């Protein structure tokens, strides 16, 4: 079977220049099904080690053919975040590394683009498992020379590998232990692909998240602070806390305001397609509308978050016996926390079964005998 993999390869970071998108066909070895029900293009998985015959290695941008693009975007699915690979004259860097079960394909994608060059830097916008799950595999492959940069707020947790602080225990997700070498903070900058990128704090989805902005081309790597159809689950809200005591919904609003002030022309989200132009302001409007709905009814956000966490794990399992899936859910602390806060009068097994039923009714999952399958 063939699947469509999207490779976005911008170059010559220049203002007001459109991004060129190449669509490449490869055999599919792993499935990464989009969470968006109406999405017709899904990620393919493993790239071959060499560029296939017939794929153009030069990029056409406003009528110019330019060899050696300075960066490339790997649009993934929902189990793994998008990745941005920078190829500079002196160093290379990868922003975010995907989920651990996709680490082999992440490594294959990087190798295919770098050829014989080494990967010099990993930049993690935040430390949720879908953004840093490939760190360990990349560190193992490229060795001690690979420098890993993380947001400063979780340096102690990474150093001691505190999975409770790092959210992996709370979400019931997996992330192999990795090291970090440097920390990043708001107001600093990184040189990626021979261009300086600003680092901006983006609390809300995660209190320690950062976004990257290149002011010349007005390109924003927004992570999960802004997608074209919204933003990521506001995890601090599930715990009843925000950033430094601030309501987590307020954090999201302030981050959206900060993005609007940056006035990006192009946005590379943590999930979903690259978008730009008038679609940026439309995305901000959509995000604010969704946020307002959550503020007016926090329970609406809770319902959304529970279904996302269940669906995300089902993306990883693919197919699992219903009894095993329910055992995993019962052992996942976020579900227990939410259940106690909002639904303590309902037995947790019945409560979780109702959410699973919603996923099945919506077409996001299906039941095959004793098994639950991702759709």
Please explain how this structure is put together:
The protein is an alpha+beta fold and 375 residues long. It contains 12 helices and 19 strands. It has helices at residues 103-114, 129-132, 135-142, 155-160, 168-171, 235-238, 248-262, 278-296, 298-317, 322-330, 333-342, 348-362, and strands spanning 2-8, 21-27, 59-61, 64-66, 71-74, 83-87, 92-95, 121-123, 147-151, 182-184, 189-192, 195-201, 210-214, 219-223, 266-269, 275-276, 319-321, 365-368, 371-374. The strands form 4 sheets. An 8-stranded mixed sheet has the order 2-1-5-6-7-8-9-10, covered by helices on one side. A 6-stranded mixed sheet has the order 11-12-13-14-15-16. Helix 1 packs across helix 3 (135-142), helix 7 (248-262) packs antiparallel against helix 8 and helix 9 (298-317) packs across helix 12. The model is unreliable at 1-5 and 8-68 (pLDDT under 50).
